[in-house]
Amino acid sequence: MSLDTLKSRMPDYAKDLKLNLGSLVNETVLTDQQKYGCLLASAHAVGEPVTLRALEAEAQGKMTPEAIKAAKAASAIMGMNNVYYRATHLISNTTYTTVPAKLRMNVIGSPGIEKADFELFSLAVSAVNGCGMCLDAHEAELRKHGLTTDQIQAGLRIGAVVNAAARVMAAETALESETA
């Protein structure tokens, strides 16, 4: 399935999402690896099958196998970190923010691709998962690597649009299966 097929399957009420998906794919402030990595990582974070298949197909040939693996790894590690660090931030007892996490996170230090690209994938996933602490940490790392506000915002926009598109597709699939 392609991105065009995904967009054609989306209902009319999600027209803005269709348009946003198209504009994000044509985004020029990010490299193809950055753009498709954010799309793929965000789709894996949401896990909705129609959107995931479409964005995996779209990423093929536009990213190296190492970058595809890194996008999936960013989704996996942020799936853990976003929950843990969001929880330590939300718990009233601040002790949990002062103790070591004692969670393996080796892929962050050695992602197999440019560190800035992995950080951007992680930022997009952190936006999907809603972890403010992780968003701050990844944004700061991206700034250290010289990414601009426009580039960082593009990663955030990708996470937001993929999340919304996947939720629309999940809702429509649920309705279809209910009437079948």
TrEMBL record:
Catalytic activity: N(6)-[(R)-dihydrolipoyl]-L-lysyl-[lipoyl-carrier protein] + a hydroperoxide = N(6)-[(R)-lipoyl]-L-lysyl-[lipoyl-carrier protein] + an alcohol + H2O
Catalytic residues as annotated in Swiss-Prot or TrEMBL: 131, 134
All copies of domain Carboxymuconolactone decarboxylase-like, residue ranges: 101-176
Alphabetically ordered keywords of this record: Antioxidant, Disulfide bond, Oxidoreductase, Peroxidase, Redox-active center
UniProt GO MF annotations: disulfide oxidoreductase activity; hydroperoxide reductase activity; peroxiredoxin activity
Function summary: Antioxidant protein with alkyl hydroperoxidase activity. Required for the reduction of the AhpC active site cysteine residues and for the regeneration of the AhpC enzyme activity.
Name the UniProt record assigns to this protein: Alkyl hydroperoxide reductase AhpD
Organism (species): Hyphomonas chukchiensis
This protein's encoding gene: ahpD
